[in-house]
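Now for our specimen.

. . .
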Amino acid sequence: MGSAGNGLAIEADNLVKTFKGGILALDGVSFRAERGSVFGLLGPNGAGKTTAVRILTTILQPDRGTAQVLGHDVARDPAGVRGLIGLAAQFAAVDENLTGRENLRMVGQLNHLPRARSTARAGELLEQFDLADAANRPVKTYSGGMRRRLDLAAALVDRPPVLFLDEPTTGLDPFSRVSLWAVIEKLVDDGTTVLLTTQYLEEADRLADRLVVVDRGRVIAEGTAAQLKSELGAGVLHLEMTSGEEAEKGVAALGERLRRPASRLGSVVELSLDEGVGDVLDALRILDAAGLAPFSLSTREPSLDDAFLALTGHSMTEEAT
């Protein structure tokens, strides 16, 4: 049975996609997204997130595997899928020479809405996205956050039940990012299903009901943010060393003796803890044996970034090849 009859909005089964030069973008990716939820595809640049979105929105065809949106097969019924979805891609697709209102009216007319309905819908969305004061200004005068809100509004002109957001807050300042999160949460409260790709761990933690973590074209973990973080155990040890060189030596010593990855950012070393205080003492003994001494230490709750490091051996800030 397709997703139309089982409470699922999106189903992807064993998606494979290879690009010119033998670049394997997707290597058997499968996941399910329930209706009325935010489903997160989490991973670094190059992980395959955008390729998956392009297949689900009928822009690309998979080499192998199948996918459905609300029961419509993306390969066999692309027109049916396109009638059910909205897409806000990584880069704003609005015309910067038109005003915000003109952009939304144009999108309505391209979606075959009557002229009066397009005009009314544009007004509704400009109010909803806090753009009414700038409605009659050319988009080229908009800030980055305003353009992203307008792009999201354009994806919603025809009230699609499923919305794809491909890294919607990339490049936005923190205030604009939080404002957009609030808009997304309101959409889901009103019944929209959202598939969100992101490399911002805080964003995934805040928005996603369920997550799939992808790395180098494969699904490496899935669950809620809380489930992924809980697998890390007692917490994270945060050690401040006297220099980046000492931190690098500390990462090597801890990784060799404890058989699990430690990470470094500048002169700070972080290590996941399985057993709390016992692990802290073990780490200090290892550093002492290597002639190293942190000048401060603390522990904290695990984050999604810690989960990603534990799963992949590299952090989200390192781009996958």
Q: What stands out?
A: The CA atoms of residues 70 and 170 lie 28 Å apart. The longest helix spans residues 174-189. The longest strand covers residues 8-19. The chain has two domains: 3-227, 233-301.
